[in-house]
Amino acid sequence: MADKPPKITSDLGQRMMGSTLAIMAMAGVMAYFIYTGQVLPDDPVVYKATSTQTESYAAGQPTKLTIDVRIENYEDKPLELVSPTQCEIFEWFVTDPKGELVQSQTTPDSCAQMTAQQVLTKNQAISDSYTIELDPARVKPGEYRLFTRYWGMETNQALDIR
Length: 162
Known about the structure:
With about 160 residues, the chain is an alpha+beta fold. Helices cover about 15% and strands about 45% of the residues. It has two domains: about 1-40; about 45-160, Sandwich (Immunoglobulin-like), CATH 2.60.40. It contains one helix and nine strands. A four-stranded antiparallel beta sheet has the order 5-4-8-9, with no helix packed on it. A three-stranded antiparallel beta sheet has the order 1-2-7, with no helix packed on it.
């Protein structure tokens, strides 16, 4: 009896299945390390700001937002954060979609004229939460941009008032 030729399709299918499983395993391991924070981002200093509208818009009432800010230092050297005064550690303003200023933070009448400083060592973070009120005469339901500065680091994000 003659030997049967090997089935090429089943051998190929097994190799493809093995390769697929290996790729999925590698992706799973990478996702695990990123999720647990053991893989650092490309940028050595990360600034994040997120805003949450705490109450629905009500005509004639200020719209309250909670702004959570965070700076993370992944540099090998300490990061020195400096602000001219305590009142300038966190600053914000809102623009309309065309970039026109709608509202900005008001400066308190009295603010100690003392420099504020903070040092973040490698893998250290600082975070804070601020509540701001948007003027009902200036801010109505719609789309805006929120610009924030925290310890001199800046970002902006879409803001949808509802």
